[in-house]
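In the current project phase, the collection of sequences with tokenised folds has grown. A representative record is quoted in full directly below:
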Amino acid sequence: MMAEDIINVSGEHYVLATTALAAEQNRIVKHEGTFAVFDTHGDIRSRIFNTQGLFHKGTRYLSEYRLSIEGRRPLLLSSDITRDNHLITIDLTNPDLILDVKRQIRRGSIHIFRSKFLWQGRCYEKYRIRNYDLNPLSFTIAITMGSDFADIFEVRGMTRAKKGEHGEILVGETLMDIPYTGLDKIFRRTRIEFSRRPDAVEPGRAEFSIQLGEYEEIEFEVVVSCLEREAAQGQTDSYIHAYRESARLFREARGRESTIRTSNEEFNNLVERAVSDLRMLLSEVDGGILYPDAGIPWFCTPFGRDGLITAWETLWFNPDISRGVLEYLASNQAREVAAEQDAEPGKILHEERMGEMTNTGELPFSKYYGSADATPLFVILAGDYLLRTGDTEFIEMLWPRIREALVWIDTYADPDGDGFVEYACMSAHGLQNQVWKDSFDSVFHEDGNLAEPPIAACEVQAYVFAARKQAAFIGKRLGLEKIAGDLLEQAEDLRKRFELTFWDDELPGYVLALDREKKPCRVRASNMGHCLFAGISSPDRARIVTQALMDDTFFSGWGVRTLARGQPRYNPMSYHNGSIWPHDNAIIADGMARYGWKAEVGRILEAMFHMSRFTELGRLPELFCGFQRRPDQGPTLYPVACSPQAWAAASIFSLLRSCLGLTIRAASRELHFSRPYLPEFLDSVHISNLALGDGTIDFSAIRHHNDVSIQVTERKGDISVSINK
């Protein structure tokens, strides 16, 4: 281990793995800025599994919540969450209970049903307890609760020199208030309300004496509210009222989603789970804009890069997500230089956080701009959105923000004027690496030594190339021919210099980055696949990159690794140096499809599908380990991966579109398919309600022996279909 590793390994951006998320089957629900991580019993035991809790606006309002029966933990019968991620349901029963010399309750005599959901900053829970014994039963159940009001960064492993003040727990007949005043002067309370009056209550514990006749049943509710400041809170809704209202909104699709069905039911389950995860992760920001939070538990907040890539992945079947992402990021574009936030005029937001540590300035993330790639990705998405929707009015409104982004690329992002975008952290608490692989050790040389900033990453140059081409496309649509022509010249000049500077015949491929001395980081990393996505590569070099990424040093059988096996710092259990990320694979696959390498795209799609068959609820996690696929064994999970994660969930839609070679052109009202391809596990794919302008189209892609045919099954409006085989 190198000296810099020892210094940084437990730094403020490192997620401390005291317990493994992968080892515990959690039940996760979210509504807007509130999310909860429960265990399969419906409990919160953060002393054992630190990530569990009820979180609201970056703070953990409930850190302990445990049900016991006669002092014992109930036995788990089943635990599930509805397919729309709305309602958690848990079936429990009693263990063998010896109450005294003459009284005992045999296991399986009592059924306890728990159901819970989140709504408007509250966790609603209903208990239904039934006696299945032939005799009347008397027993006690207790709920133990506690609130540590930990900031999400504390939960991640950061330590603080000082914390706020915990107040005295206030106990009433049917409620309990746990108060806390943070160093940010915000007064927070966790309020627990019981519909049934406890027979004994003390700070942190409520006990109920239950008497049930033969087959008798009782119900009661518990509502946990996350309250801020002294402002009066309205009356708490009943469980049934809150459930009906929240269920109604869950049933309403957020946006013009298409419906995707295939011949493979397991793949259909993956798609349905991905749609549900994306709906759950969407939150209202800035007065009603829908924006996908990045992931649970660590990144349940808007991230620029994550939102942009998620929007791009889902653009073809739900462009409303892209519009929300573009609108929010445009309104939060940096306006001035602020070193502690790594902000510069025109720069696109990296992340926005809420919570005590951010509010006090202990961390710079109230609005943080430490991202070199979010700004060109913003321009790329704007161009793709215009192509997909034809929404010229919205893009015209966005054009000043696009221009400011381009000015940032030409000036602040290129301080030495060499034509390449570079990054270097200005903030004392900011990110040292400001690309998607933002671990401190993700950019290094062939001898393993870390690259010194300013750093010019290969994929960022490719994004800038694509951004200029997309900005030129927008400019032409807006009648700005001179600007469009200049941007195309800039793009072509960058392409030539990039190919000369970043290509390495001996790797072979594109070097990872250039360091402060312009010395290339001669490392074989998946970043080179993003160059195909951007279209900056020549066809011959795209072929070489594709072959490299699909050999067994990169492709594990479960997907393309972030770093090739055998490279310095390679570790299949690392965050960025050998692991496998679904969104990374989706971007790479899109690049391969651009150059016609469809069989390889199909292999990546199939790998991701098979990976999902081994995960809880059949969802794709943020990342997983890069170990080689072994016969008759599943993949190795990463211990602290977010799940669900927006760009991971969305990757399946991008991969499917890449296989089909689908491009939607609103101006000509055309669906264009380029060399459509389906892997063997998919005989057919059926897309319905695909919106284009004021019309919709339904179609099927059907795999034949050496071909895929496209059949239109229903069409509303003037929409054409073209196929290039």
The domain at 333-524 is CATH 1.50.10.10 (Glycosyltransferase). Confidence is low (pLDDT under 50) at residues 1-11, 16-20. The longest strand covers residues 217-228. Residues 481-502 form the longest helix (22 residues).
